[in-house]
Amino acid sequence: MTRILLKNIGTLHTCDDRRQVLKHAYLVIDGNIIREVDAGTAPDGVFDSEVDLAGCIVMPGLVNIHHHFYQSVSRAVPAAQRGHLVAWLKLVYPIWSRLTPADLAAATSAACAELLLTGCTTTADHSYLLPGARAEYVDEEVSAALETGIRLHLVRGSLTTFEDDIEQELTTRLGARAGGLLDDEQSVLADMTRTARRYHDTSFGSRTRVGFGPTTVTYRNMQFMRDIATLATEFGCGLHTHFHPRLDEREAAAQLPGGTPTGFLKETGWLRPSTWFAHSTRLNDHEMAVLGDAGCAIAHCPRMILRLGARVPPIHMYQRHGIRVGVGVDGAASNDAGSMIGELRLVPLLHRLAGGEGTVPHQEWIDPDDALDMATRVGADILGRTDIGSIAAGMSADITAFKLDAIGYAGAVADPLAALLLAGSEQRAFLTMVDGRIKVLNGSLCDQDEHRLRRGLDNAANRILAEAAQLTGVVYENYPNRT
Fold it and tell me: I need a labelling partner for 10 at 20 to 30 A (CA). Which of 95, 96, 126, 328 fits?
């Protein structure tokens, strides 16, 4: 069993229920478990390795509760830089229609590497673009993620319906069933079952767990939503989907059992503590109360809000209603970046603008401690995990550390966490440890070639963009409506 000492820690945020902060601390890791946490002089003993974290701020590994790995093949595409959600999706779905299982593996490797480099040790991936419900898509993704060393919560998703009029437009442009992107529901349910049987591991310290959920609430087929919820109950999996109902969705729900979007979710068995929704930027007070009473949670992805010009969600109102809120990176095409610490830096700032200038009482502004709590302990709880998310004896050894010695932190001496989230601009962690294994040290991947990962994804992205351009006639390198 490998024994590791992390010593001379400048500031250690445990992120436990009391939010304890230790100064001049140390950690002893035995195998994949934290054995000792304390302040003061590190103990004597024989260690396989010692890491000096003088000048670092140390915290639990960050927990990302919403992502779309596959979108990494379409980052920073000029043609998709203007347009709200539906217009943006119409441009990028043709790109994604060219995705192969090998492309998904390349995207997964790159996305997970970037997460590890920015302090994330556990990630959920809402993997809903799996054409034909082919098992090799899921298997390639899981294999690639595990090779990076990250913990994976795979939300085996589906694409059985599109937002707004996207289906009609894509079918016209790409062919039947939106060029083959639309899934067959029974095939999806069969592969959800296969995926859970193969990868859903609820044991302490497990590296893979599984959740279920379509890309968005499927109002057109109530039974499909019920069937997914039934599978989640059978396997003990979480439920996850995008939920921020548009006007047309509210009108559709009014004609269905339940009468409202949240009523529909209740009728289909989706309102439960193991359900978490992405974004939820358009909730009214009643919907917030319903989700809070049901114990549901929300993934807040702040950079996506800015990238797509979406509504800034009133996080303080969600929390007032008892809704747990965690942090997500979201897909690289609706973010363009993939940095977990980058998202965390936006959480305390973007929230202040919800509803317009001065609308959020300053007493309820999210501070750095609140943000870190959302991205560690709360995120772990949302994913149903009690073995990660805080630093304490007996917990899994998922840890990250950031150095605060760059000029961007100069003068920020009052609070190291405030310095990290409000002052500096460095993205890379000094150390990231998952399950007792050091995956990042001194800002570099320990056992993967970062440049090889980039070349692999760049090659896939070049091919995919060329194929999508030939298919649609869109010049993806040009910005739209440029005057």
Answer: 328
One domain, residues 320 and 424: no
Query: What distance in Å separates the CA atoms of residue 242 and residue 228, rounded to the nearest whole number?
Result: 15
Answer yes or no: is 181 within a domain: yes
pTM over 0.85: yes
Could you give the CA distance from residue 282 to residue 288 in angstroms, rounded to a whole number?
Answer: 10
pLDDT (0 to 100) of residue 410 = 97
CATH number of the domain that residue 20 is part of: 2.30.40.10
Beta bridge partners of 287: none
CB atoms within 10 A of CB 132: 13
- Specify the pLDDT at position 482: 67
Residue burial 370-404, b: 16+ Cβ < 10 Å; e: rest: bbbbbbbbbbbbbbbbebbbbbeeebbbbbbbbbb
Length of the chain as a residue count = 483
Domain assignment present for residue 462? The answer is no
Strands 62-64 and 33-39: what pairing?
Answer: unpaired
Query: Are 242 and 368 members of one domain?
Result: yes
- The Cα–Cα gap between 112 and 151 comes to 9
Q: Looking at the structure, tell me whether residues 44 and 100 fall in a common domain.
A: no
Looking at residue 334, the DSSP 8-state letter turns out to be T
Q: CATH no. for residue 181? A: 3.20.20.140
Measured distance CA(398)–CA(434) in Å, rounded? 5
56 shares its domain with 68: no
Which residue range is the domain that position 53 belongs to?
3-60+389-445
Question: CA 5 to CA 47: how far, in whole Å?
Answer: 7
Task: Give the bridge partners for 126, in sequence order.
Answer: 155
What does the block give as tokens for 181? Answer: 């992107």
Specify whether the CB–CB gap between 318 and 298 falls below 8 A: yes
Residues 23 and 94 in one domain: no
From CA 370, how far away is CA 358, in angstroms rounded?
A: 20
**346 closest CA partner among 325, 321, 371:** 371
Q: In angstroms, rounded to a whole number, what is the distance separating the alpha carbons of residues 368 and 284?
A: 27
First to last CA, the chain: 63
Question: If the chain, 483 residues long, is cut into consecutive pieces of 10 residues, what is the mean pLDDT of each piece?
Answer: 96 96 98 98 95 98 98 95 84 91 98 98 97 92 98 96 77 74 92 98 98 95 97 98 93 96 98 98 96 98 94 96 98 94 98 92 97 98 98 98 97 97 95 98 97 98 95 91 64
Confidence at residue 178, expressed as pLDDT on a 0 to 100 scale: 74
Cα 209 from Cα 130, distance rounded (Å): 18
Tokens matching residue 433: 């440890």
